[in-house]
Specification:
It is built from no helices and eleven strands. With 122 residues, the chain is an all-beta fold.
C-alpha cells in the first residue's frame, strides 16, 4: 500500500496549481486524507483534510483559496490551489489516516506519501 502524489511545480503569485494523490494496494477503506506542507526552517503543518464522508477542514491561511476534494472509489485526494502566494511555497505531502486493508481486519494505520514541491514566485 502506498501513496503517489503529483502536480507540484513552479507558478507565479496569483496562479493556480492542482495536486493529486492516489493510494494504491489492497485498500478496504480510508477514514481521512489530507495535505500537509513543510517550508524550509518551519514545522510541518496541516493544509487541508477531508473525511470519507466529505467533511473537510482547512488551515486559516488557505481558507477561501484552496479546495480539497476526494474520490473514495479511487482512493484519491485532490487539492485545488488558487491565488497562490509566495508564502505557500513548501514541500506538500499527502497522507491517509485510518487506512484499512482487505486482509488487515480492523487494524488501521496511517500512510504518508513522498512530497511534491510547490514554489510560488513573486
Amino acid at each position: 500500500v502506498q501513496l503517489q502524489a503529483s502536480g507540484g511545480g513552479l507558478v507565479q503569485a496569483g496562479g493556480s496549481l492542482r495536486l493529486s494523490c492516489a493510494a494504491s494496494g489492497s485498500i478496504f477503506s480510508i477514514y481521512a486524507m489530507g495535505w500537509y506542507r513543510q517550508a524550509p526552517g518551519k514545522q510541518r503543518e496541516l493544509v487541508a483534510a477531508i473525511t470519507s464522508g466529505g467533511s473537510s477542514n482547512y488551515a486559516d491561511s488557505v481558507k477561501g483559496r484552496f479546495t480539497i476534494s476526494r474520490d473514495n472509489a479511487k482512493n484519491s485526494v485532490y487539492l485545488e490551489m488558487n491565488s497562490l502566494k509566495p508564502e505557500d511555497t513548501a514541500l506538500y505531502s499527502c497522507a491517509a489516516h485510518g487506512v484499512r486493508t482487505l486482509l488487515g481486519g480492523r487494524s488501521q494505520f496511517d500512510l504518508w506519501g513522498p512530497g511534491t514541491q510547490v514554489t510560488v514566485s513573486s
